Amino acid sequence: MDMDTKTIRFVRRGELVSLANVPPERTLLEVLREDLGCTGTKEGCGEGDCGACTVVLGEARDGRLEYKAINSCIRLAHSVDGLAVWAVEDLAGADGTLHPAQEAMVQCHGSQCGFCTPGFVMSLFGMYQNHTCKGESITRELAQEELSGNLCRCTGYRPILDAAQQMQELPAVRIDEAQVLAQLAELRTDVRESSAYLLPETLRELLALRAAHPKAQIVAGCTDVGLWVTKMHMEFGQVLDVTRVEELRRIEQYEQHVAIGAAATLTEAYAALVADRPQLKVFANRFAGLPVRNSGTLGGNVANGSPIGDSMPLLIALGAHVVLLSARGHREMPLEDFYTGYRKNVLAADEVVGWIKVPRPACAKQAMEFLRAYKISKRYDDDISAVCLVLNATIEDGAVAKIRIGAGGVAATPARALQAEAALLGQPWTADAAQRAAAALRAEFKPISDMRASSAYRAEVLGNLMQRFWLESQGHARINLESFRLEEAATP
User: Fold this and answer.
1) Which of 109, 167, 191, 457 suits a disulfide with 104, CB 3.0-4.6 Å?
2) What are the sequence ranges of the domains in the chain?
3) Residues 455, 410: contact at Cβ < 8 Å?
4) Is the separation of the CB atoms in 384 and 308 below 8 Å?
5) CATH class (in words) of the domain with range 369-482
6) What is the pLDDT of residues 299-321, one digit of tens each?
7) E strands in 367-455
8) What are 440-460's pLDDT values in tens digits?
9) Which fold, 8-180?
10) Is the domain covering 200-359 a CATH 3.40.1190.20 domain?
11) Torsion sign, CA atoms 374, 376, 379, 383
């Protein structure tokens, strides 16, 4: 498809970078390495898993500069139009003085072969801007959380975590944010439309463009579509990027529910969910690594509909609804009714996912929900689930008054475990009831065997997780990795 491709313009090193004739499916990593010669940014996995390609983006939001570490290997280059970009070559001073993120890695011996080091440095730089520069202390726990998207094969993580804490002790380095904000504002004054990469900024624009271009590939963070480019070598004649639509970036709080815009990042969306339900924090942190959560969106995760996506089982268990939008109007449905088959859904050609509406927890005067979200994967951090199970029960007078169960990795679509729910609803909440529900869970699904787990393993784990749910509802602790503390294990 011969279409006009607009010039990509972004701020780097305090200067304007302008690149013409960039195909819509070209990644930011390719542009940095091949067009700009920034070879410090590495391609490791090509799928957003290892973090070697990490860079930091800066965007003007509400009059301030917002920093996000992201994976450049699965980020489309056109998506950074109008933003600021920092690669590892951009951190040292003009006289060669290393940035604290770099100097701390040197002092703490945080590098060995060096391949992953630039990605770690950029994640550290993002932490420095988001925490150190705001006067916030970087704890060991915070460093481990925010570096979970960076993998190291040879050095080990202790010296890198040391560096995360050491950099805040070094002489401070500040970015002239006023200058960057002024440059970004200047970029917005000269916007040229493109027919190959559509980047609407209002909902009205988005719906009109979707109606006019129903075959354009929608991207909403590109953490999955990016793999179609890097692994399947797909090419798109036209891309419709929803991530700049202001209305869909909002998260709105209502008395009965939270409305999460489809373009809100996973970082923002999970923060809103954790604010209402703090017990979800560990589960939220285990959704990939921070760079993926900073790029990916909740709407994109829902629309993609992967049966091993972690958001959907959680949203199903919470009773979430999805709102679909088009120029014709809108419609709303329970999330579990959205899917029709493997990566298939009810979206019409002119529709987009607009909002995800999540009910808020019951108030204190009512019976409280007991909610647990379980992710089973080979690697604890930054890995894809073999099984995901989320259980949300309300116990009144010793019986199950309400129950919703969402499951992932066990069917062609994210699923609601209706048979297991039926086995529990209205029944006394006892160990025997939990065993019957476990048996119902194992019988309800016919999971496949693949590289992550066998069918028999998945079925067995489903029942085991129901047993864990029962034990935790009775106050048992220290029965999972979430409660494990290295310091406690080392105590004689």
Assistant:
1) 167
2) 8-180, 200-359, 369-482
3) no
4) yes
5) alpha beta
6) 999 999 999 999 999 999 999 99
7) 369-376, 387-396, 399-408, 415-416
8) 999 999 999 999 999 999 999
9) Ubiquitin-like (UB roll) (3.10.20)
10) no
11) negative
